[in-house]
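Quick illustration, no need to memorize.
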Amino acid sequence: MAKANKGAIKANKDVNVYFNMPAWPVREQFLSPEMRACAARLGFNVRALEGPTPQSEAEWAEQLVGVEALITAWGSPKPTAGLLAKADKLKIIAHAAGSVGGFATPAMYERGIKIVCANEIMAPQVSEWSLWVTMMCWNNFLEYAGIGTVRHLAWDNREKSRAMHQATVAIWGYGDISRRLIEMLRVVGVREILVYSSHLKPEEAAKAGVTLCSFDEMFARGDIIHLLGAMTEANKGKVGPKQLAMIRDGSVLVQAGRAHLVQEEALLAEVKKNRFVSVLDVHYAEPLPENSPFQNQPGVIVTPHVAGRGREGLYMAYVLEEMDRFFRGEPLQHEVTPERAEIMSGGSGKVLARG
């Protein structure tokens, strides 16, 4: 049962709220009219970073003097001890994006600063994109479809079309994205759903309608393989030549999690064989360089890290609602504890702090 935030009660209009996302073009989607209307309804006056983006931790720290509620997003600096040095009034960090696994810090938890994030509404966006890619690639859509001036209709390839009931889908991870993807896959009616997870219990797997499998089995048996494991130190580069060689010809590998789950050179060597389709939405360097060896490879589909895009306007409203609960002294619904942060994508795999 969540605990109320005793002592946090304060009129929202009096709260010093600061949004420190750098002035990237996408920031305007976070500062949309809908967001401002939500903030006004709740009584918050959200002050955004103005002027040049600070170039040092000390300059960022100056921005947080007197701030009680900090809203962060893509490009915001990590709340390290140095960044928080002058933020003596900071009570809550609201991350208007997904995972905070690589963002939350011991300094933040040691100070008793609460952190919430919008991962639960970003997860459906990523899972919907993953389902769309799953169905399109397994169906071999690009093998037969005529697409404008890019390619002609390949009528004779229509026999390559495959139905989803023939497919076994293997998923690494059982976080928010995976759970939502599994729900949709069950509706679609795939043959079997395999899950590799270090924390999913057999009884929970049975209830979810999935089959637990070993790490290697995921690659050997999956027709479509989704890499959605947490980007912890233990998981970095866990997929290597052995696992990639196990993938069967004609299968589909979907990377919408973190690029570094897979060893780069091993992946490049395998995709050059053109044995299976690889869909890469996350990359070892972003933006993906024009001369990247993953560009223009047969059987490789690259996308510009868009799986979680499209709901930016909702993320701010989501965390503003959480901030409202906090300053009214109500329990937080989406607080990220140290234990939760450690298994989120980007996390260290170690407990950050214990209170």
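Residues 123-302 form a domain with the Rossmann fold fold (CATH 3.40.50.720).
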